[in-house]
Recover the amino acids of this structure.
């Protein structure tokens, strides 16, 4: 920053200086262009478009009709299922977001205590569920509703259950099971970020800490490791939160859509219900816009909190 | 073996001592009990983590009579490869040949991944190494894009896709993968850490243009990062199931075809386990090969405010 300031001259305006810099470095624009053209088409434009469309009714055939806030009013006052969806989404995100974050951090820390060879094997064990496609469907085998499911069979054999339980159809169990499966698949990229973060902490800091009176591994974690790992903690938090809002497809694969009594109905399901099935694009856009602001809001809030850690 | 002279032996001795010292310094502030506790806990949780995968593998090796035994057994007694054979037979009999699904997945994964690595690396190089005005703004948009899930853009992207005439073509799947922003993010962070500005500057003074510098100097230096981009983009594309923008059966992916078999019910539980094993073995193998590179890249990935 200081270097750039030094170049600014008094005899030309800031605007002119920027133009000169732009011309001098125009090759930079050419190199960034291909990526960012696509980025605008497939990320920026859709977000802005859904914001615009959320004030209209649009069925893909006729030209959108402007209805102002009607979609939002309908969402909050007229759509009982949407209220359920918001509740479920927030509940789900509030458990799996921090849950996966803390689990990732804790296990990354534990794994870091191991010797390098074992470390990479254990890392693989923990990371594998998040990259192995639809292997989470195996959980439906464990918790299968007939007596051939592992849990039902052994539960009945040991006398814990009287009859087969319909695990993924019973309102009592669905939410807990989904959260468990979600946490199981959630040691993903943020987990790797932490694994790497623990490895790059300067080892001499630990020695210095020991001299200064750090007595055990907990103090070491709290006073030395975490403060030096703040950049990784930020990225990990963002990835974990974004992920926790995006588990809809796993839920659909496990309990089907719609779920019994909408007990696992999230905003994502509501969105695809109106967007992909009923083609009420205006209404779906309103849902998407709300979801967008919820995710961005949660992320900004949490990153702000983490920035405060240790300052 | 030739007799070592005193000097080499002395050096070896010193190296050994250094290694011992390093091991000792790792164990400051570590209690024996804590070590054991952590090890036991890790072992238990790791077992839970791999249990479903192991079960999938065992299930895929079970003959029919063992699949429907009551109470169900975890381990397999007479392992057989029959389920895999059945899977391939089943797939060959399907309306769209199995090879077509496999081709689709490989084609989409490979082109999408290559495009992403190329586009993201170019942009990352420009943002981190060429001081053009606006680069910070572009990067902050990339960071914001990490903060929301792609379902938000899914619906309106449908409008974009139909406007472009890409609905029900490979383009609808491959081209959006090119601008997978986490790839750009990782590449930029890694380039900032590992590519030295002075090397680039001296190359510029020698008259090399930015494209040459990018290919000849920057890209070889960030090998771990592009390997990481490959695995991240690849695993996403490989695991992609049904897609909003694809209707034709001929354009659907392997994962989609397999999920159709998996949901077909109890009668095919052996076959579906075999399918699940095939699906998971590919990304896991890729990760095993690339793990050390991925960890190196992630160590640079932190978000510095």
């Amino acid at each position: 920053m200081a270097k750039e300031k030094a170049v600014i001259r008094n005899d030309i305006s800031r605007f002119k200086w920027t133009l000169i810099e732009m011309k001098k470095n125009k090759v930079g624009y050419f190199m960034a262009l291909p990526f960012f053209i696509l980025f605008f088409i497939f990320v920026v434009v859709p977000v802005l478009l859904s914001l615009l469309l959320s004030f209209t009714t649009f069925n893909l055939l006729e030209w959108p009709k402007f209805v102002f806030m009607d979609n939002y009013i309908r969402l909050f006052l007229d759509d009982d299922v949407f209220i359920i969806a918001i509740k479920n989404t927030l509940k789900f995100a509030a458990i799996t977001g921090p849950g996966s974050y803390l689990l990732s951090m804790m296990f990354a820390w534990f794994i870091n205590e191991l010797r390098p060879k074992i470390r990479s094997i254990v890392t693989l064990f923990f990371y594998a569920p998040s990259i192995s496609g639809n292997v989470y469907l195996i959980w439906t085998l464990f918790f299968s509703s007939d007596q051939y499911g592992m849990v039902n069979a052994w539960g009945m054999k040991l006398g814990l259950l009287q009859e087969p339980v319909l695990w993924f159809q019973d309102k009592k169990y669905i939410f807990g099971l989904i959260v468990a499966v979600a946490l199981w698949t959630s040691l993903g990229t943020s987990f790797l970020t932490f694994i790497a973060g623990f490895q790059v902490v300067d080892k001499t800091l630990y020695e210095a800490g020991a001299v200064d009176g750090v007595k055990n591994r907990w103090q070491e974690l709290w006073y030395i490791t975490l403060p030096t790992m703040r950049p990784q903690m930020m990225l990990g938090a963002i990835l974990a939160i974004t992920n926790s809002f995006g588990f809809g497809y796993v839920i659909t694969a496990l309990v089907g859509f719609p779920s019994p009594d909408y007990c696992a109905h999230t905003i994502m399901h509501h969105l695809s219900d109106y967007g992909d099935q009923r083609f009420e694009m205006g209404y779906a856009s309103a849902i998407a816009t709300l979801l967008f602001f919820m995710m961005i809001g949660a992320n900004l809030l949490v990153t702000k909190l983490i920035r405060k850690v240790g300052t | 073996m030739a007799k070592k002279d005193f000097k080499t032996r002395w050096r070896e001795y010193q190296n050994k001592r250094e290694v011992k010292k390093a091991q000792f310094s790792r164990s400051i502030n570590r209690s024996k009990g804590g070590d054991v506790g952590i090890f036991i806990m890790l072992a238990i949780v790791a077992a839970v983590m791999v249990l479903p995968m192991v079960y999938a593998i065992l299930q895929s090796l079970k003959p029919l009579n063992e699949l429907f035994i009551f109470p169900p057994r975890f381990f397999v007694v007479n392992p057989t490869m029959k389920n895999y054979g059945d899977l391939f037979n089943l797939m060959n009999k399907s309306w769209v040949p199995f090879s077509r699904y496999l081709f689709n997945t490989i084609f989409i994964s490979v082109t999408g991944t290559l495009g992403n690595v190329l586009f993201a690396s170019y942009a990352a190089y420009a943002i981190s190494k060429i001081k053009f005005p606006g680069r910070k703004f572009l990067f902050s948009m990339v960071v914001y894009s990490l903060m929301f899930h792609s379902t938000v853009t899914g619906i309106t992207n449908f409008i974009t896709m139909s406007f472009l005439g890409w609905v029900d073509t490979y383009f609808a799947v491959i081209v959006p993968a090119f601008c997978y922003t986490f790839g750009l993010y990782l590449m930029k962070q890694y380039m900032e850490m590992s590519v030295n500005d002075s090397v680039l500057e001296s190359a510029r003074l020698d008259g090399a243009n930015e494209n040459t510098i990018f290919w000849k100097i920057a890209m070889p230096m960030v090998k771990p990062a592009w390997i990481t981009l490959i695995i991240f983009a690849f695993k996403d594309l490989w695991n992609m199931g049904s897609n909003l923008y694809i209707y034709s059966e001929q354009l659907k992916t392997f994962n989609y075809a397999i999920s159709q078999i998996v949901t077909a019910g109890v009668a095919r539980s052996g076959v579906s386990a075999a399918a699940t094993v095939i699906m998971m073995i590919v990304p896991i193998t890729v990760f095993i090969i690339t793990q050390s590179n991925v960890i190196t890249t992630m160590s640079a990935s932190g978000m510095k405010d």
In short: Chain B has a mean pLDDT of 86. Chain B touches chain A through 105 residues (CB under 8 Å). Residues 98-129 of chain B form the longest helix (32 residues).
